[in-house]
Predict the structure of DUF6908 domain-containing protein.
Amino acid sequence: FRLSAEPSELKEPAIPSAEPAPLGDLQEWKYSHATVSVEGESNRINVLFDEWPSPEFSDALKQNGFKAERATGPWSAAYSPEQLKIATHVAQSYSTSISSPQDVAREKPTPKNHGKVTAVQPATRYLQRTERKVAEFLHEAGLAEAVMGEFHIKIENPPFIPLTVESHAVGEGVTQLYLTHYIELNGDLAHDGEMVFNISPDGALRLEETAVKNPFTGGESRIYGGGDRTFANTFARNIVSQGFAKAAKAEMAQDVQQPMKLPEISSPVDTQPEPVTEPEMPTLGKISPEMPTIEDPEQKTADVVTDQPSVPKDKPQVTEQPSVRESEKTVPASQLIQRTIEEHDPELHKALIVSDNTVQASVQNLRDWYVSVRTQIKAEFQSPEQKRDLEARLGAISLQGQQAQVGSAQITPAQAEQMNADLTWLNERYSPESVTIGELRQWYRVNVAIDEGKHTHRIEQLATTLKSSGKEVIEIPGLEYKKMKTDLHNLQVKIGLAAAPNVQKIWNAAESQRQIQIDAAGQKSLPGKNYKILAEGDKLILTNQRTAAQLTLENGQIVENTLTQTDADQLQRFASHSVQVPPQTAGVER
């Protein structure tokens, strides 16, 4: 069965790596779970899926002129080289998304690189516009390899807001990529839009979060689990059209970036002091008092904490601003940083200037500490006061790095304790957790119910890896384990909110119809075949007598919930029935 389709003009085609084959009687490209064919006689392209595809793949074909009566196909369109590229790309992407490692190994319709992936996949490999544009930017800017590891660069591109590109390893070969516009507000840095991507071990980008300034609260509005695609599409398109790739090349040419060492947690620092002389705070340059600025804390980590010797005296560290009038007084940047620290954290400021009791920390300690505090600022919800404290701490670490001797620095015992606490936080946050195939299956169902299945592709990858390994458990990164727990929690909240009013309705109906039982101890209850409700003071406790799942309400508020969606659906029916039935038959007999 074939449906006809007119050739479509493609505005922005998703082009695969496969090259179109010459027309003949029948040309076929067989993948593990899909087949692409070209019929020479009818001059048509057909795509046939082995299983029901997700909307991502069928919509990609539909939007590019392919038509079919069933989701599995065959999807048909008039032949053109561009249409063939789209068809083979969709078939290959679909097969890869649901294939086991053995299936992928058998797929050889196009050349594959089986070596270690060292760069983000090219733009032609993506169906989603955001990922495609960001991949285009990274490759054009020459950053596609650098962001596979620890990396940081600030791209100046007047008159546009500077763009910070930053990446951090988060375990299991996964790297997180941040693209952020930072602006200065009242002397503080704040982001003016951010996208966060996961980069898989095979170099595939996937949008995870977006954040924008909240015009009502002054804080940020962050969307997890796939982000805001409309905002992300605009952000990604602007990065490409505004020439940030060219600006990045110029930036790299002036100051070649050295990727940071992976933040392996350093050994705890001994907090016992040893006397040292107080280091002299360096003057970093002259700055106009009309616009007092300091070196951006977002600067490259290699600049912030460096283990290289000091710059020779005959080579100036910072160039003075060209239009400073003689009458203007100059302020050292280090003093501005110290003033900020003194204002927001007097104890930390005291620890910086009093060097009677200090301990030695390696530059690697400082690097790890910087990464931990930077991650806390970005990854955790903080009150304005907490955020200012963290930013002040980041500035202090920056100063320590600038003053560090080759390979080591002197810090106070209080700083050493704070550093060890921050490093412990980072270690615990990113330490992997073990999960079973049953937990992955449960997470898959929950993610579909609570988050529109935005994380199911990754869950499938984990399940496939676990099954192919023959083991009972698989270790997943701490962030993904946290995401799993968050999804489970959010589902329980959703179920509880749906069930609570119906439990109250059933109880109220039973009271009005005198169905409540009171035992010798004065305990009120509404027993039933499958469910039972108890009243204890201001609490109502509903229990599934078969599974022991419970919902506890206190003054109408949810205290605890372990019910399932099935329980919530049944309670909905019971509540409707309790209102309708005559008094003598009402109750939770089900």
